[in-house]
Each structure stands twice: as C-alpha cells, then as structure tokens.
C-alpha cells in the first residue's frame, strides 16, 4: 500500500472511527490526528493515533502525508482545503467524508494545486451520538462508502484507497458528485425534512390536546426518529444541497397530492402494494444514507 502516513483532520465519530479501524486492521502507516488539543491527546492515550497536532497547526499535521482525510463538518472541509493544499506534496491524495459532494468537489478542484489529487468520499455510517468517545472500529462494517468519479486520479492511487475502504469492511461505490447529491436529497435529506415537519405538526396539534403525542406509538416514532438530529449537523448539508432538496420536496408534494385525490376514489390498493414491494427491494445487509 502506498499510504505510509495517513493524516486525519477531525477526530469526531467518523474520523475517530477511521483511526480506530486502521489500528484494528494493522494498516502499515503512521496515523496522524489533527484536532483540538484535548481531543488529540485523548486519541494518543487510547492508541488510536501515532502523532498529534492541534488544529492551528494543520501544516505540520499534513506535511509528509500520502493520504489526508478531512473528517470535519462540510463548511470546515471546504475551508481546510486551502491549508492542506499549501503544505502537501504533489502525488498526495486528499479525501473527505462530507454528506454532500457537489460543492466540496468543486471547491477542491479550485483550491488544491495541480498534482494533488482529490477523491470525494461519503461513508454511509453513523451513530446516535458523535465525538471521539463514541468512535467504533466496526462502524464501517457492511457500510456503503461512496466515492466520486474522477478521471484526474491515477488508477493505482484510486485502487489503493478502494483497498483501504474494503479493509474497513465497507463497500466502495462510485457515483458522480451530482448524482450522489440528487440521491441523498431523496433518501436522506427529504426524510429529515419530513420528519421535522411531521413532528412539529403533531406538536402544534398537541398544544390543543395532549392526547396527540400521548397516543403516538411505534409507527410515529419510527417516522420521526431522525427529527431528533441536531440542526448543527444539518445546517451545512441543507445549505450545500438546497436545490436538490427543494426539487425533492416539490416532487413529493405532487405525490402527496395524488394520494389525496385517491382518498376520494378509494383506489389506494396499488399504491400500498407498490410501496410494500419496493421496500422489500432495499438491501438488508448494507447501511444507506439514513443513519
């Protein structure tokens, strides 16, 4: 494997879990962590990384790295690209773990110097709680790991990273950044918006009569589970995929209007049957966009 020094910027749930799985799988590389001082100190104590650098010293952290993984929130990923680009050598592979891809890939192409390769990444894995304290080396088992298509990356470099992804227990799937964001808008971002809207709608009615939420049971809880996700996580996701989310909402509203019309005719059986059949086609042994 060509990656002899791997630098992970951001040691939260995803970055910390990457470090943990690299150690668990005995990846033959120096693992360097870049984050707040208290975070990298804890990662060192836990044996998750070999070298530690504070966020204000990104230059030292990425110097000499063959692979740089930026595992921070989306806007921070974009801002970090400049600092990384100034201090890595030609031939270095830079990748990210952001939940949207179009904006990040476009910015990487503008901000990184010629000879530094960028491969957009999005591991389809997560947990209810974030932070290094919840890092898990098994987080990526059976997970889909989306990688963006790029003709500028030598196949040997790309293949080495795919091998690393597979070593984690994940499955690499290549998509264009555009298609990734369109799919994410439908199967991840729209469900988040719907869950928040449904929860707020029911809560508004509950102000009139507390029986509404007192009677909310399994089905309602399942549909609104992600409504508990903090907005801090979703701010950048929504901001960088706004057009696709708006389109998904518009198309869903048209489907909802169709459902409303069918209520009067009573011809709903086909819709229920189609939905049940389609849901069975979702793979059971892999994780998807929704966490």
Radius of gyration (CA) equals: 21 Å
For the termini, the CA-CA separation is 31 Å
**Arithmetic mean of pLDDT:** 94
Tell me the CATH topology of the largest domain: Rossmann fold
Number of strands: 9
Strand order of the largest sheet: 3-2-1-4-5-6
Shape: elongated
- Total helices: the number is 12
Structural class: alpha/beta
The appropriate CATH architecture of the largest domain is 3-Layer(aba) Sandwich
CATH class (first level) name of the largest domain: Alpha Beta
Short description:
The chain is α/β, with parallel strands linked by helices. The chain has helices at residues 13-24, 37-45, 58-62, 74-87, 102-111, 155-167, 177-206, 211-214, 218-224, 231-240, 242-265, 269-280; strands at residues 5-9, 30-35, 51-54, 67-70, 93-96, 117-119, 121-123, 144-148, 171-175.
Give an overview in words.
- With 291 residues, the protein is of the alpha/beta class.
- The chain contains twelve helices and nine strands.
- It has a six-stranded parallel sheet, with helices on both faces.
- Helix 4 packs parallel to helix 5 and helix 7 packs across helix 11.
- The chain is elongated.
- The model has no long low-confidence stretch (mean pLDDT 94).
